[in-house]
Amino acid sequence: MTSAQITSLPELVGTICRRACLTDPDDIRSAPIARTRITGAGLEEEHLFGLDWTDVIVSATRFTATTIEGAHFHRVIFQDCDLSGLTFIDCMLRDCVFADVKSRAQIQFVNTKIDGVYMTKITLDQLEFQRSKIGNVTVASGDCHTLSFHQCTPMNRNSALTLTQMNLTSIGGLVELRKSGVSVHLDAELWRLLGDLFLREQGFNEIGGDNMDEIQIAIAGAAEELKLPQLPAG
């Protein structure tokens, strides 16, 4: 999603919020839905096929342990939703926003085309992309325990992934994603974090604290035995 498209979102939201909203899960299962609000609905252990949503705001809605297959989402905003265990399979998401969403389980995008998707203020356990086409994806601000990419490829020559202001514990598949042709952009803090994670995964150990004190003592002892000048402490 481009900056111009993000700027136009308030106008879209204002227009849609003046319309009636859907709250019945039976209405959500129907297709297509356009220029509509969905709020307060609850879906659990559902398998939904062929949804077609355009200019839709989805708020305060649960999609727990639910699979959405063969769906098309264009300019859909998911806000303040519980997406615990939600899986997209063979879907198309274009110019969509995930804001203030949470998940206590894995969210998966499987064999899905994702272009112009913006995620912000998220609180997720696991976010996984499998065999999906990446167009332009931005994840900006939030907490995610595990973020991973498996066998993903670019949707076009301008495909890009941007990660910024994220608290991550583990991340996988970025090297393969970059090799596939997707441009990867990180802020400075994530750049350092991913460097640390990579070194730990490769078995490297950081020198610091007690380890540094032990090393300095060992060097001082060796220097004394060899009659070499001691290194200054610190």
Topology overview:
Layout: H1 3-7, H2 9-17, E1 21-22, H3 25-28, E2 33-39, E3 42-44, E4 47-49, E5 52-59, E6 62-64, E7 67-69, E8 72-79, E9 87-89, E10 92-94, E11 97-99, E12 102-110, E13 113-115, E14 117-130, E15 133-134, E16 136-150, E17 153-154, E18 160-172, H4 174-180, E19 183-186, H5 188-201, H6 210-226
Strand content: over 45%
What is the share of helical residues?
A: 10-25%
Outline: elongated
Low-confidence spans: pLDDT under 50, at least 5 residues? none
Q: Could you give the distance between the termini?
A: 48 Å
What characterizes the major β-sheet? 17 strands, parallel
- Along the chain, the helix and strand elements come as HHEHEEEEEEEEEEEEEEEEEHEHH
The tally of structural domains comes to 2
Number of strands: 19
By secondary-structure content and strand pairing, the structural class works out as alpha/beta
User: Using only CA atoms, what is the Rg?
Assistant: 23 Å
Distinct helical segment count: 6
Average predicted local confidence, pLDDT: 85
